[in-house]
Amino acid sequence: MTVAMITDREFMQFQRFIFDAAGITMADGKQALVSGRLAKRLAHYQLGSYGDYLKLLESRDQPAELQVAVDLLTTNETYFFREPKHFALLRDLAQDAADKHRTLRVWSAASSSGEEPYSIAMVLADVLGDASWEVLGTDISTRVLQRARSGHYPMERASQMPQHYLKRFCLKGQGSEAGTMLIERALRQRVQFQHLNLNAPLPKIGTFDVIFLRNVMIYFSLETKRQVVTRLLAQLRQGGYFLIGHSETLNDINDTLTAVAPSIYRKP
Questions:
Q1: Which of 50, 112, 162, 234 has a CA between 20 and 30 Å from the CA of residue 255?
Q2: Is pLDDT at 185 greater than 80 in this prediction?
């Protein structure tokens, strides 16, 4: 069966779908992305149009398919130790926690395929060792969370990783796995991954000293940004740090935090 091209009307319907499901505002002109990512699902169900696939999602006859569609439309590429100044700050906070014998809890709120939470864990393991620390990684996509739990990545994702971390925390792929790396088991076991929609009431996950919400707000409308940030700040301890992407800002979104540096904020 040949799948027809996605129409402007169908594309607008998928824009509404992903906004309702995940609070994500999909920019105009992304028809090729939507059709490219969903074409295999149409083939799987032997559907002739994207409108038919949307009807399938709305019928709720295949409830698991809703998550598949969300996974396919929200996946983002990332890499280890993105924005090094955030990890320099994290190192200082970990050292302070070590000096005061305090537990440090860090939340990677849009963890994607796991590079960010594992980068966080490497810094904490390096400074705090076996002391008390926790890293939680959450994402709306179950598919990327599955990849995150496996800890298996193309080697190029580690181009920004400090060499001593690469040697200490990663296993180099051999033979058929050449060109890949695996996060070593002990570190993988220290990172918890959980499926979570930032655009819905949060489950009981406790409070955190540091929350990373990086490079995800660009996909949200202004009102959604305000709601998500307010929701997350309720989980941030007083004096805790809130980190966003270097191309993002909290101007017009939230005025309760103190700006420490570009993309770094602190809760009074």
A1: 112
A2: yes
